[in-house]
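Help needed: design a sequence for this.
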């Protein structure tokens, strides 16, 4: 009993400044990156923290996993984005939430079995483990889609990097562009679970 009282009394006499210092050190350890702010220009991309040109690509990374200790990833369109109709197959991210923000224009979004037309200013939240996809339904769509992942794995960022330089890929193409180990890690946390959005059918249903 006396020992317990002594320990309690000792804790109560610790200066608040010391506790504050301890808290600061813990926070500093948890947020090792980024240590310094930066600006990403409109003509820049930064997959894995490396500044490159997004010219003639399907998208550009504006905040990388390297910048955020795998806690956050942001990407937007580039020169070749949304020129053609279509989108990725229905898929699931098992370990990260995804957010779409419509900067301009409009797109189709599928969440589980439901398909929606989303427009400028709309935000879509996809909890991890939820089947989803999107589609461009306008040829040469001038719209802009901001994509956010929280958190983000390096293997998923690698997939986006390869996609932005090659466009949508089938299984055979992915086998040539990724190593077996990279694909194994990618499919461990992400899965294709259905076809892309049938644009013609979706638009008919939305109009009815």
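Sure. Designed sequence:
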């Amino acid at each position: 009993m006396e020992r317990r009282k002594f320990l309690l009394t000792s804790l109560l006499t610790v200066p608040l400044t010391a506790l504050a210092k301890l808290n600061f050190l813990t926070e500093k350890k948890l947020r090792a990156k980024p240590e310094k702010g930066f600006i990403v220009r409109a003509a820049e991309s930064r997959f894995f923290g490396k500044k490159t040109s997004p010219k003639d690509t399907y998208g550009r990374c504006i905040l990388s996993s390297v910048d955020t200790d795998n806690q956050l990833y942001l990407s937007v369109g580039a020169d070749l984005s949304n020129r053609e109709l279509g989108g990725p197959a229905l898929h699931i991210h098992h370990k990260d939430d995804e957010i779409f923000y419509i900067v301009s224009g409009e797109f189709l979004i599928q969440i589980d079995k439901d398909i929606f037309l989303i427009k400028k200013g709309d935000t879509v939240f996809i909890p991890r483990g939820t089947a989803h996809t999107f589609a461009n339904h306008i040829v040469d769509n001038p719209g802009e889609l901001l994509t956010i992942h929280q958190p983000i794995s390096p293997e998923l960022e690698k997939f986006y990097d390869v996609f932005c330089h090659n466009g949508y890929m089938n299984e055979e193409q992915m086998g040539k562009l990724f190593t077996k180990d990279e694909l194994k890690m990618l499919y461990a946390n992400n899965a294709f679970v259905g076809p892309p959005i049938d644009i013609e059918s979706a638009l008919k249903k939305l109009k009815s």
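Residues 16-30 form the longest helix (15 residues).
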